[in-house]
Amino acid sequence: MRKEIKKIAILTGGGDCPGLNAVIRAVTRTAILQYGYEVYGYKFGYKGLYNNDLIPLTLETVSGILHKGGTILYSSNKDNLFDYLVEENGKMVKKDVSDVAVENLKKEGIDALIVIGGDGTLTSARDFARKGVNIIGVPKTIDNDLAATDVTFGFNTAIGVATEALDRLHTTAESHHRIMLLEVMGRDAGWIALESGIAGSADVILIPEIPYDINKIIEKVKEREAEGKLFSIIVVAEGAKPKDGSATVYKIVEDSPDPIRYGGVANKLAVELEKLVKNHEIRSTVLGHIQRGGNASTYDRILSTRYGVKAVELINEGKFGNMVCLKGSDISYVSLEEVIGHNKYVNPNGEFVKIAKKIGISFGD
Ligand code: F6P
């Protein structure tokens, strides 16, 4: 017979993302109002689980947080408890300390754990599920690069911010006849650039999945000039790369499960374009963490709420080891075993790239 659930806990891992608080709120409210569970939150992701640093979550704690970006539980993108930096005999060494976490859960009487995160965080969730912990995953990332769900929460807010940035850049581009580049996030996936580029009326979209040729970008600028359009807007995914080169690495975060941080491609490209395009001034803008911060969009508030409610329903049904997901218009779930290692990238021959090309957007290919 299944053990009766009394106490559940939540943790948020990886980079912050609009909608995290909406999930925390939906989980807490559903757990308390529908099932009478006690709810706790571990602070700073898996680090809190290791340090047994947890706080009670009540209807009051989660009041007023639905729209707010960030996470009231704080987060960490470094703490993989299966490969964790600890001090041993005066030296820092990496060790599997996951048993400490399992013991902490037992000690506190936590019957089920909801883990909200992207690839790295969910990999550990899968590994804890393999160790017998009652886990439910919730997919978060502005990058929208998890194949197991049609949409991760946070993505919609990010493309909204990027689209607004493109709208704003248009006014300066047009007034000064400039070429304006906007660098957006997304790691190795070009979703943010692609969708904001279509919505924000970009002339060129550069994504990691379609390596670019600078001459093709110049061709597009010239084509526009011939039509009397003396400015151009280029949206560049941070992971975009030239045909004969590689992505621009900004820094390596040694103790992160995903250590490479991209950044700087738009500026690099702006400098190269300046040398080749004579009659325009060129400027680049890096949108950076602005696309990850601030209030969640209406869509993300609703998606996060649906995910949070579903996560608690799965706990009630004893369907552990799964991640909630969106399939078409329905909320569903998928085994964590099928989530990890399956990333979703832009298909260069897919519908979105095709429609963008049909309306004249160049991908620099
Ligand atoms: O995965 C989300 C994301 O914002 C990526 O788009 C970006 O490459 C990365 O995280 C940035 O990470 P950090 O906040 O550690 O700089």
UniProtKB/TrEMBL annotation:
ATP binds at G15, K78, D79, G118, D119, G120, T121. The keyword Magnesium applies. Keywords: ATP-binding, Cytoplasm, Glycolysis, Kinase, Magnesium, Metal-binding, Nucleotide-binding, Transferase. Substrate binds at T141, I142, D143, R178, M185, G186, R187, E238, R283, H289, I290, Q291, R292. The active site is at D143 (proton acceptor). PROSITE patterns: PHOSPHOFRUCTOKINASE. It is an enzyme of class 2 (transferase). Its EC number is 2.7.1.11. It catalyses: beta-D-fructose 6-phosphate + ATP = beta-D-fructose 1,6-bisphosphate + ADP + H(+). The keyword Magnesium applies. GO terms for cellular component: 6-phosphofructokinase complex. The record marks G120 as: Important for substrate specificity. Its cofactor is Mg(2+). GO terms for molecular function: 6-phosphofructokinase activity; AMP binding; ATP binding; diphosphate-fructose-6-phosphate 1-phosphotransferase activity; fructose-6-phosphate binding; identical protein binding; metal ion binding; monosaccharide binding. Residues 7-315 form the Phosphofructokinase domain. One of its GO terms (biological process) is fructose 1,6-bisphosphate metabolic process. SUPFAM superfamilies: Phosphofructokinase. Pathway: Carbohydrate degradation; glycolysis; D-glyceraldehyde 3-phosphate and glycerone phosphate from D-glucose: step 3/4. NCBIfam families: PFK_mixed, PRK03202.1. Homodimer or homotetramer. Catalyzes the phosphorylation of D-fructose 6-phosphate to fructose 1,6-bisphosphate by ATP, the first committing step of glycolysis. This is ATP-dependent 6-phosphofructokinase. It comes from Clostridium fallax. The gene is pfkA.
